[in-house]
Amino acid sequence: MSRFLGLLFGRQARRRWIHLILGGALAMPYVFVGQLVVGPATNSRYVFNDLPLQLLSFIVGLPLAALTAALFPLTRPLEAGAVRSLCGVDAGLLAHGPARSRAAKGRAAAWFTLHLGFGGIISGMSLAVPPFAGFLTALPLLVWLGGAQLVDLPEALDRTWVLALAPVAGVATLVALAGCAAVCGSLLARWAPALLGPTPEDRLAAAENRAADLAVRNRLARELHDSVGHALSAVTLQASAARRVLDTDPDFVREALAAIEDTTRRTVGELDAVLGVLRDGDTPGTAPAPTLGADLDGLLHGTRAGGLRVTARVDADAGALPPVLSREAYRIVQEGLSNALKHAGERVSVTLRIVIAEGDLEISVENPLTHAPTCRPGGGHGLRGIADRARLLGGTMEAGPAEAVAAQGIWRLRVRLPMTCPPTPRERP
After folding, report:
1. Its pTM surpasses 0.70
2. Residues 268 and 165 in one domain
3. Are residues 242 and 368 in the same domain?
4. Sequence-distant (≥ 6) Cβ neighbours of residue 351 within 8 angstroms
5. Could you give the residue ranges of the DSSP H alpha helices within 94-159?
6. Residue 410 parent element (H or E)
7. Tens digits of per-residue pLDDT, 395-414?
């Protein structure tokens, strides 16, 4: 019994009842418009006082409601919000954006019509049934107090058994009203995911947005890894080298400290640019991303200050490269030198070549294989990041012991990037 009463008068049933009454309130303007059509069509001056004409006006107004939902795409998110709050439907089953496609607009129109139709009926019953039920419940008391002077009753109602059943009938009408509201509310809650849920086009658009967001996140992760990781590796080695020769080679110490200062200042600017994207969406940060044409010399200087002997051969006009290619090439060179700093040890020779071959920009970094790399916890993403950058630009990457010079123990990183490359996700129109 308690479960039955909960289905009729529980919290969820009451909220769905409110949702239906909201639909009845939304239906009133369309009923008034329907009266303007029904009145002249039936030559009636008082449509409001005629129940059949009122019902006819209600029926005429429903197609206008459907047309409204089809013409205004925001009807769907507004209705979805009401369904989520009042009908207890999971938000993941509902669409949150405006209806754009024809199918989505048709479903939204069908839902809006059902909501206003059920809501208008339940609202009318909610206005008429409670006073009638109250009258039936109080009828024996009214007859006992005033008889026919207070209540004009038909002769049949003077019978005692009829008066005794009147309160029962009043309570039954209230239960029937609650049952109708519960059934209509349950039907709308069941139909809501089908009519207000995302269409295949909505799911495709959502998947594309998620893919774009993931691409941006991956790009930012690569930027942070390459920029901050290289800076920390370089600063660590520069400080270590300066500490060892602090008393014997002050000129080298001064050079190392200046390189540390320059590296940290540049990295803070890059970090601020990346964090600015995270804070402000697509708004650029205060510092531009480094490029091969503008920042290669500073990168080589900072790397050499850490004790790494870098021989650079640049047979390409870095300043004439496309901006995207120049930026990604800088990060690839930076990560290649960072790997050499971390794994090849200090005071080793690294050969960097940047050339244009067969229409591609070719970058190669070679360093001696001194010992097996010792990766820090959570590291090991450098080569994968280089591979991701190359793949996004339509290029290729090779990394490993160089076959032609395997006897000398040389590790080679080679990347080929097409001179004409697609834009990265953040730069797509």
Report:
1. no
2. no
3. yes
4. 310, 311, 313, 364, 365, 366, 367
5. 102-150
6. strand 410-418
7. 899 888 866 544 457 888 99
